[in-house]
Design brief:
Layout: H1 5-8, H2 19-28, E1 30-34, E2 39-41, E3 49-55, E4 57-63, E5 69-76, E6 80-81, H3 83-88, E7 95-98, E8 102-108, H4 109-115, H5 119-143, H6 148-163, E9 164-166, E10 172-174, H7 180-187, H8 191-203, E11 208-210, E12 213-216
Antiparallel strand pairs: 1-8, 2-7, 3-6, 3-8, 4-5, 4-7, 9-10, 10-12, 11-12
Helix pairs in contact: 5-6, 6-7, 6-8, 7-8
């Protein structure tokens, strides 16, 4: 079944494609559904397709040799992932897991290669790679701090930029619902450490937490980092 072109226009890689290119793309995409907690693909399967989130949300993570998970990013509707490994086949591998019931579209390596001949797609892809590089540097910045509270602050600030929704009173609410373990896995600390750091941030009125809903009155205050 062809995929609705109105949705494809929402995907930044495809928004400037002409109608013929969109028609061909919509016929090539394969749709699959995943339940919450179901793995879309593992690290060993990276490199054969690129994926677009049609509905729902997924997390991108890696498993360290000691068994710990590090969450690299979340991707929601109209976001995509896996494009880098289709370019060189050697991009860092990741496990993708649905955090909500999700519908995922996949595009084969051959279809991706054909799109590369379209100048608007190639231009959008280069801009995407710049964004991915900035995201990687932000992750490095988070993990560079020895102080656990600084890591949590940086992780929350990054989430406000990437997953934040500004409310009428100027506060920012994270659109992705997080557990303490999720935040710990983003910041590279233990769950217990993340809970202690969050308790301090809540006490200082830098963050409000209601179950899995996080609100930040002023994200820039999170950058007033404690010293290592």
């Amino acid at each position: 079944m062809a995929i609705d072109k109105g949705f494809l226009r929402r995907v930044t890689l495809f928004e400037t494609l002409d109608e013929d290119a969109l028609d061909a793309l919509s016929e090539r995409l394969i749709e699959r559904r995943f339940d919450r907690g179901q793995v879309v693909f593992t690290e060993e399967e990276t490199g054969e397709y690129m994926y677009i989130v049609r509905e729902g949300r997924v997390k991108v993570s890696r498993w360290l040799p000691d068994g710990r998970e590090v969450i690299l990013a979340f991707r929601g509707a109209a976001d995509f992932f896996g494009e880098m490994s289709l370019i060189d086949g050697y991009s860092p591998r990741a496990t993708i897991t649905a955090v909500l019931p999700s519908s995922i579209l996949s595009l084969s390596r051959g279809g991706f290669r054909e799109l590369l001949t379209e100048a608007p797609f190639a231009d959008a892809l280069m801009r995407t790679l710049c964004v991915r590089c900035r995201e990687a540097w932000q992750q490095i910045e988070i993990l560079s701090h020895r102080n656990a509270e600084a890591r949590i602050r940086m992780a929350l600030h990054h989430l406000c930029e990437q997953e934040g929704e500004e409310l009428d009173d100027g506060r920012v609410r994270l659109t992705v619902r997080l557990t303490h373990r999720d935040l710990a896995n983003i910041a590279g600390v233990s769950r217990e450490t993340a809970t202690r750091a969050l308790r301090q941030l809540v006490h200082g009125k830098l963050v409000e937490v209601d179950g899995r809903i996080f609100e930040v009155p002023d994200p820039e205050r999170l950058l007033e980092l404690p010293s290592d």
